[in-house]
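Late entry, written up from scratch paper. The run itself happened at the end of the previous shift, but nothing got recorded in the book at the time, so transcribing now.
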Amino acid sequence: MDEFRDDELVHQNLDVADDGAFEILYHRYEGPLLSFFYRRVGNWETAQDLVQETLIKVHQNLRTLRNPQSFSSWLFSIAHQLIAAHFRDEQRKLEIGSLEGNPEAYLVDLEHRSPIYRIIAKEQMEIVYALAQRLPISEQEVFEMKLANPKMMLEEIAETLRISLSATKVRLYRAKKKVVAWMKAEYPGEFDHIFRKQEGTKTG
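Output as recorded:
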């Protein structure tokens, strides 16, 4: 059953009550989830707890999944919700500590008081830049210029690099295609939203 697609395993679990199918999904995503949470909380025990909580919620709510083919995206959306809730709880604890006469506690680890989406976005962008290092230099420079300044027009990039506009469009398209493929292969589900706005276009 290891060769089965996610949606096939979801159907087996729901249609024939095959718990073994969900067990395969469990082991398939346990590692990626653990990596996802550990990069954010920096503690293995907390990360493992969040993995368990995520997979329990996934199992309990599997029937609410409208499109089994989007299982990984749905699973990581639950993971994002739980990590956001985790940081909200941590912030609440710091606030309670300050009210109990320990104002120093409120100032500890200010990053935990930042909006969770800023933290997640920062880490995701670091990964994107790391993946971009694998690109051929001609594609990498176009991609990184657009990534660093999304509002920058392709004409400006072409002028800066002294290449034609058509070459700029082709290089950016190829770069995006490669980076997105690496994201999906190495970080399943975690980056599905990054280039959603550019899907179906070649120029971005």
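The CA atoms of residues 38 and 46 lie 8 Å apart.
(Scratch paper discarded after transcription.)
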